[in-house]
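This part of the workshop introduces the protein records we will be handling. A record pairs a protein's sequence with a compact description of its fold. As an example, a complete record with its sequence and its structure tokens follows.

_____
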Amino acid sequence: MRNKSGERRIKKILRADTGCPWSVESGMREAFAKIRARAGGAEQTGRRRRYFVPGTAVIAALILSMTAVSAAAAALYSWSPRVAEKFQASPEAQEELIRDHLTGNLEASSVSGGVTVELEQALTVPDYLYISLKITAPKGVKFTGDTGFSEAVLTIDGEEDAFSAISGTMEADPETRSVCYWNLWAQQPGGSIEGKTAGIHLKDLVCYSDKGGEKASLLAGGTWDLTWTVGEVFEGKTFTVEKAMPDSSYTIHTVTLTPISFSLTADLPRGGEEQEETAGAGAAAESRAPEWNPVAFCMRDGTTENFDWTLPHREGYVNPEEEDSLYYQKQGFCRVYDLDNICGILFVKAEGGRIQQKELVLS
């Protein structure tokens, strides 16, 4: 006869001490089945019953074996299932990126006007910060894709100009319209934010009734302030290239890859039309756009993965007020890439109605 109370007690200990989630229940059942099989189950002698109760050594071994499972499962709790799906991050990739400090356990929330704003996820690399906010409103408030805040300010250590380009999308939960998610991409102009305090200030939840975002009706008035500490930042993988592109004065110096972003530095002599940097922020400087532009990753299986140009892209001279020719290009991605599967960057050049392609091999 099974000692169910003993099993329940051990399960309770396992969950409390090792953080073992309910998803590993089947593993527990299998472990207990093996223990019972070895012990031969319960024995009966007359009216007196003797039950098999795992000893201290067995319990310790069971806890040790389950810890490996629960550690991996607990690591996945650092990822929102919604964000993991959005970024096409497999369970293995999620665990690896936690080890690489791309993300981790973060908690921040604020309540105002009956609306709760929670930090669902933050992914941090040298060039980009991705933030997902979960917004929960009282019953009766219905969110749409046109929902937003009348004011949103992202800060680092209280400084409002810490990010040079910010874009975001709002997604209403299809099952309950009183919950929505704000996916926010912010580009860092330079300098590490490791160990610093990130913050976001929000004011008045509104619904925009026009595409221009000028006409808005108030859904819930209030202010929300969230702060969290940025941990160790994953630096990515840098390749020294020093490659001159064909029939061009554009020379690529370095390429840096992270699982969610790409950047390069290059030499581009100044001249030609005056133009602002692509993102629009910063002073206009005498410059010219590169003739060759990166458009896709070249994968080791022979396929290409096109860049998503709807996400923040930025390029320009590193020192716009100077006369040097050091140029940069940066691009974020809304998916997780395995860097070991990337073998090159595909560049294109449009000239005279025809398109030229050139693969820049990374090794």
Summary: Residues 107 and 119 are 6 Å apart (CA to CA). The first strand starts at residue 43 and ends at 45. Confidence is low (pLDDT under 50) at residues 1-29, 31-54, 58-76, 273-285.
